[in-house]
Amino acid sequence: MNGPQLSELPDDAEQLEPYVISLRRSALQAAELSAVRTFSDGFLIKFLRARDFDVDLSLKLLLNYQRWRRESPEISGCLSPLSVLGLLGTSYHGVLPQRDHSGSRVLVYRIGQWNPKDWSAFQVFRVSLMTSEIISMETQTQRRGLKAIFDLQGWTLGHALQINPSLARKISSVLSDSFPLKVRGIHLVNEPMFFRPVFAMIRPFLPDKIKQRIHMHGADYHDTLGDFFSPDILPPEYGGEGPGIEEVCQDWTNQLLQKEKLLQQIATHPTADIAITAEDSLTSGEAETERLSEG
Predict the structure, then answer these.
(1) Fewer CB within a 10 Å sphere, N or C end of the chain?
(2) pLDDT confidence of residue 288
(3) Tell me, what CATH number does 32's domain have?
(4) Structural domain tally of the chain?
(5) End-to-end Cα separation, the chain, in angstroms
(6) Which uninterrupted H or E stretch holds 253?
(7) Domain containing residue 86
(8) GO cellular-component terms in the record (predicted)?
């Protein structure tokens, strides 16, 4: 079986076992991971799916992930939603309750809701990392990846001054080679002209495949987002027929708060077995769908 076929199998499929064993053996032998003695199956499968079960590439991704966490303790060391509750309360960030037509998760970031006088770029990045850690535990997201919509209305010089070359490199690393999620698309809307210098700072660090998945829609996004997302999943604010963006953001904030303990476990022991139930890994909409299908 090839990588994509293996990815479709459930976590406990016997065909996956040799790959998990091989990646665990390599990880335990890696000098950079000498302090880590436990790698749960679920943790390793995230990296294998992210690299279509190529063990060498999965190991490289795992090493990058651990290195990124070590070098970014100001972001990864604290994954508490309560620590950024004020920012979440502004409806800055949400995850759409429905996936897109390809099964990808769709994340929305409303940059104008972030006041850089109140919240540092590191704290804002922490919100993204918390969401990424949670959705990376979802089997369907491991298979289908994510797409992100960044609404840059309200972008100011204050925002731009928060993004320095070091942070730009950290952002690009997560997008490209340091996190076990496949980024399927990045969509920018309402981007002002003076956002371009910041984007120019990030762009050189991105691999070509990510650059090709970046789409700038400008102020006419109502006409063009529909080319990538069906109206039934998008909020009305973005030309769709789904739940409003305020509701989406509040719902996701509630879900992050419910996972406070889980996120603290991840921050402390990311490679170990995490106490998560099947329903914990679903949004409320997906959980309801699951219950109905079982009934």
Answers:
(1) C
(2) 41
(3) 1.10.8.20
(4) 2
(5) 33
(6) helix 245-258
(7) 75-256
(8) late endosome; membrane
